[in-house]
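Notes to self, WD40 repeat-like protein:
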Amino acid sequence: MASLRYDYSLKPATESILDGSIHQVIEISQSDFVTPFSTASTGGYVQYSQHSGTLTFKPTVRHNRPVTHSVYSPKHDLLITGASDGSLVLGSPGKRGARAHPVNGELAGIELTTDGDAAVVVSKAGVVAIVELPELEVTTFDTSGPVDAIAILDDDSVALFDRDPDSVYSVWSLTRQQRMSVVGSAEIRSQIGVPTVVCINGDQTRIVSAHGIVCQLWGADSGRPLVQWRMTSGITSLAWMDTMLLVGHNDGTLSMWTVTDRKATSMLSNKSHRSKVTAIGVGNKAVLSVESTGRICFWKYVLDPVNTPSRSPSVLPVDPYSGSVPATPSSLHQSTVPATPTTTRVERADDFGEPASEQTIVDMLDEMTTMLSTALQRMGRLEARMASLEARLNAK
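result:
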């Protein structure tokens, strides 16, 4: 009896172009995406509704420098954007916000604690600022070292991907303001370099770090290095989609991977962007990807339960969103058009020099068994009909 399986599909839905650079995509709710962007002196954000398929521009208070990081707190309805000079703007979406400047210089990241009651802001110089929400009280401490990326592990722990040659990242306590442990070794550091892109999954159990074309999966609780794999082009953005990993590349490719503790397998890739993919956001029924020129692609993905055995992976056609993108302010180009349908190329594991996985072989054997069973049933029915005809002839 066939077990319930899920097949992913990913296809461009609509596209638009912004007059500015996009740096990071965040998800506000199950229905809307928000992506901050900037020109030379203005910070704002674009909101996309998955339900209506509309794209709108909503200005916020201005930054004096390009926006590089952002985070949204659903608990307190606060959108926090950070600029390249370390300044923050905090406020409800669509409204003017408050300013703060807890750290100086370029930011390594802004993340919420798991309880949503504080934003952790880290500069590339290694200064950590804890911004309590919604009071906006700030506590800072210095880790005395350059930091390139961060990941929140729990309410009290943050992983700082620093440049220590003998490790990959260090775990710091936010309340004690001290380093608790270091993760990785000089050998792994030499293999993966200095991670510049980091992504932690929804339940804070797995971290993926990337530098160049190398990805490394880590156990967030144990700090143990798990699977390590290489890609064909540089990695510029990461996002978890359920148990899948979406990867943006510097050649404009968006790829999807299944990642386990022992193996990473490419499911599909699609090169719809014209320049590097700087950010990826995952929502309830759609994916938003942004390239360095400001062009945005919206993707629709589905989880379809299939009651018969299926080859793995399977890509299903998806109709583009209905409805056109409405007229937008001057910051958006007026000539936005639906994306041209793109053929998705499925890349099997053996395309990358790896043998087919055990699950893939099991799925293929299941399908062959089903086909053989169907053929035997048809042969049985045919034999019964022939016997019936022979009996009729003998009766005459």
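- The CA atoms of residues 88 and 205 lie 29 Å apart.
- The helical segments are 186-192, 358-395.
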